[in-house]
Design brief:
mainly beta, Porin, 2 domains, 16-stranded antiparallel barrel, two-stranded antiparallel ribbon, 5 helices, about 10% helix, about 45% strand, Phosphate-selective porin O and P, Porin_dom_sf
Length: about 500
């Protein structure tokens, strides 16, 4: 109303001073446009007052505004989020109150915060949120064999193939956030690759409840918490892939109950009660009725070492991490004495699958085993240098099968050591690795050299190259491009990008 009165007085004054009809029409048109703008601002302020939120910026296309507020001491007092006020197109209606229909306040905004996000301006009123992340690894690998074949412990002669191929190892979308309550969170990760069946897989999906800042329960499917390098995301490995020894001993994913917590700022731990040691994507009909337990913990005595095992900035003070992990799984075969699919991950130290006919004794198939894995790990970084290592010991006991066995237990052990340095901070690093697996049926090893280039000077875009000398691999893992029995040179080049 104040704007209308003011504009009316101004119009009379200007028209009185104007001598031409054309000038008068121009003045009336300009004043009419001014009146509409002032009416819109008044409506915006009214809508904002009704919803008890701070007044918005006049720019109605601005989604989120962060502004520094000057305190009396002239120090930055933080940031504030200003809600979005949008103008809505309306049909002509002379009986409607234009102030009530032209604008509305939106509760959520869309932005980017290490991923695309949908969040509420008032998180106490609307605790639900969504973040979308994605990443892809496009890879070329080539393996040059030194032998034409290898013979497993069951006496089967298996061909050894040279390989040369492009593939997409990991193409992933991750949905995460909170729902219903600020303490309730969710995580869903979809994975696709071309060395499998070219299908999309529900890799991880869990629902969590945060009891405090130091403890959360997660229900669903995720990694069995054992082996430090296994728990490290594949985006942050030092080489194109994890060490051969790590992939030989580590567990996989399973469905269960997980506890994730910390003690103070230096100790972190995870606990699990789940279906199996390696039961990812297996139906319950293909697993036994016995649960698996797992636990891991780490200690950073000199301060938080962070989520990366390398020192990208080249400026890190000396940091140290010590940790250990364990998994226990008792696995039972079918009532007919045949092994279930859950035991397929177990292999002898020469690469022979334990559940294969004749793996231990001719004509006998192992169906029941008890598995205990224990590992200790250490990592350090300082001024661009970094180092990490892990030792594994695995006891496979109480072996039973569909016939007499000459042994009833196996002991396998192995380790890896890797390190490197950033030659150009945030841009270029070089790395070296040695790993070894030892057991009653042979010893295998790998030696690797590699480098990573970060073209955007941050981890979100990375080009990696490495070369690995394999001496009789016990590992069967297409994700690592390493197959059982491999003896030769493996070359890998990979481009990784993420948002």
């Amino acid at each position: 109303m104040k704007a209308s009165v003011t504009i009316g007085v101004l119009a009379i004054a200007l028209l009185a001073c104007s001598n031409s009809s054309q000038a008068q029409e121009s003045i009336l048109s300009s004043l009419d446009q001014l009146k509409q703008n002032l009416d819109l601002q008044e409506a915006m302020l009214d809508a904002t007052a009704r919803d008890s939120v701070p007044a918005p910026s006049p720019a109605n296309s601005y989604v989120q505004q962060s502004q520094f507020v000057q305190a009396s001491s002239c120090e930055d007092a933080g940031t504030s989020e200003v809600p979005l006020v949008c103008e809505l197109p309306q049909e002509s209606n002379c009986d409607a109150d234009s102030k009530e229909s032209k604008v509305r306040v939106v509760d959520y905004f869309v932005g980017y915060d290490k991923g695309f996000v949908i969040r509420a301006f008032d998180k106490t009123k609307n605790p639900s949120s969504l973040k979308l992340n994605g990443w892809i690894q496009f890879r070329h690998h080539a393996f040059s064999r030194d032998e034409d074949s290898w013979t497993d412990n069951a006496g089967v002669v298996r061909p050894m193939r040279s390989r040369n191929a492009f593939d997409i190892e990991r193409a992933r979308l991750v949905y995460s956030g909170t729902a219903l309550d600020s303490r309730s969170s969710y995580f869903l990760q979809l994975d696709g690759d071309t060395d499998g069946s070219h299908t999309v897989d529900f890799f991880d999906y869990w629902w969590g409840w945060r009891f405090s800042d130091s403890f959360q329960i997660q229900l669903g499917k995720r990694k069995v918490p054992a082996s430090r390098q296994w728990l490290l995301t594949a985006r942050r490995t030092r080489f194109v892939e994890r060490p051969m020894t790590n992939d030989f001993f580590r567990p996989d994913r399973t469905v269960g109950i997980f506890g994730v917590g910390k003690i103070g700022e230096s100790i972190r731990y995870q606990l699990m009660l789940g279906n199996g040691y390696s039961s990812s994507n297996l139906a319950n009909s293909r697993t036994d009725e016995k649960f698996t337990i797992a636990a891991t913990s780490s200690f950073d005595p000199l301060g938080d070492i962070g989520g990366s095992i390398v020192d990208e900035s080249g400026e890190s003070p000396f940091r140290l991490r010590l940790g250990h992990s364990m998994v226990y799984a008792a696995q039972k075969g079918s009532s007919a004495g045949q092994p279930l699919a859950e035991t397929n991950y177990l292999r002898l130290s020469d690469g022979t699958r334990l559940a294969q006919i004749g793996a231990i004794d001719a004509g006998v198939t192992v169906s029941d085993v008890d598995v205990l894995l224990y590992g200790v790990d250490v990592a350090a970084k300082w001024n661009g240098w970094s180092f990490n290592a892990e030792y594994f010991a695995r006891w496979i006991e109480n072996l039973r099968g569909d016939g007499p066995l000459s042994i009833d237990e196996l002991f396998q052990q192995g380790y890896y050591v890797e390190g490197g340095r950033f030659l150009l901070p945030n841009q270029l690093d070089v790395n070296a690795r040695y790993s070894q697996v030892m057991g009653e049926f042979g010893t295998s090893s790998e030696i690797a050299l590699g480098a990573n280039w970060y073209p955007l000077s941050r981890p979100t875009s990375k080009v990696s190259v490495d070369v690995t000398a394999l001496d009789g691999s016990p590992l069967q893992n297409t994700a690592s491009d390493i197959l059982a029995g491999d003896d030769g040179l493996l070359f890998r080049t990979q481009y990784q990008v993420e948002f």
